[in-house]
Amino acid sequence: MSGIDNQPVSEFSLSDRPEPEPEPEPEPMESIKPSGHEKHQQVYAQQMSKVLQYIEGNIEGDLSLNILSRVAGFSRFHFHRQFLAFTDMTLARFIKLLRLQRASKLLVFARQLAVTDIALMSGYENTESFSRAFRECYGTTPSQFRSQPIWKTTEITEPLKRLKEKNVNTEINIVHFPETRVAAAEFDGPESEPLTATMRLIQWRQANGVPPNKGKTYGLHYPPETDGHQRIDVCVSYDGEIGPNPQGIVSKVIPAGRCACIRHHGSREWMPEVDYLYKEWLPSSGEVLRDYPAIFHYINVGPGVEERDMLTDIYLPLV
């Protein structure tokens, strides 16, 4: 962004405007009902979304074909074919990659857990088989990843998007976001590495006595300037002075102003409400964006928060 437009917006009386010419009444349109095929597709999409919610909520449990086909309400054979059609991936492969994705987060953000513990939580009987699978997915061993994490887009990214976009919240409220002073970890670099900013902020919080239940955690997501590039500030509300520190944390202010707010419930890997805000709601709303990035309020954070329980409020700054 070139700058932050923080100036008040003047209001004017509607009575000062000339009376508009009456517009012609729109012609009635024939309603178009969804075809039988479209209805079936909607049912399948809803059931696949239900299955994903179950998988994320029971990631360490029994995720056999028998269990998940019952969740979907389909026969085993029919469910497997439908899942493959929706994700372009077998069920077994999908679950394996989802568990490895969770393992990558635990390795970095739950350092109290041994690699052996994470292997067992991910469905592996020993660290050897876990390390082979992890290396296949991330190109490095779990121990190496823990010391130098680099996340990358994996096969599961697109299937997750397809499943999650079928279960998007569309309830939007116009709210006033208060001016908020924050401690911010800035990141400007490859899109595979923004969580390094989260790590720096966690280290600073630990060193300065700001635990997960103290202060509100935010993410400021700036528009990408080039493909494969990302700029983000990971922040925690903080009113104190911030001196020089090895984590590079700086003091910033999120300005007050009108925002459209929508809530996402679940994993923060992919939040379809963001696309809904920009692509569907904004063009039809008549609202105008402020020159400020989207604000993500990560309501519950910390190693004890499961992905299925995560709550995120997304604020779109408006004029």
Layout of secondary structure:
Blueprint: H1 36-57, H2 65-72, H3 76-87, H4 91-109, H5 115-121, H6 127-138, H7 142-147, H8 157-164, E1 172-177, E2 180-190, H9 195-207, E3 217-222, E4 229-237, E5 250-254, E6 257-265, H10 272-285, E7 294-298, E8 311-317
Antiparallel strand pairs: 1-6, 2-4, 2-5, 3-4, 3-7, 6-8, 7-8
Helix pairs in contact: 1-2, 2-3, 4-5
Q: Specify Rg, calculated over alpha carbons.
A: 23 Å
Structure classification: alpha+beta
- Strand order of the main beta sheet, please? 1-6-8-7-3-4-2-5
The chain-level mean pLDDT equals 82
Helix proportion = 25-40%
| Helix-strand sequence | HHHHHHHHEEHEEEEHEE
The first-level CATH class name of the largest domain: Alpha Beta
Describe this structure in words.
The protein is α+β, with helices and mostly antiparallel strands and 319 residues long. It folds into two domains: 37-166, Arc Repressor Mutant, subunit A (Orthogonal Bundle), CATH 1.10.10; 172-317, Regulatory factor, effector binding domain (Multidrug-efflux Transporter 1 Regulator Bmrr, Chain A, Alpha-Beta Barrel), CATH 3.20.80.10. Helices cover 38% and strands 18% of the residues. The protein has helices spanning 36-57, 65-72, 76-87, 91-109, 115-121, 127-138, 142-147, 157-164, 195-207, 272-285, and strands at residues 172-177, 180-190, 217-222, 229-237, 250-254, 257-265, 294-298, 311-317. Helix 1 (36-57) packs across helix 2 (65-72). It starts with 35 loop residues before the first helix and ends with a strand. Mean pLDDT is 82; it is low at 1-35.
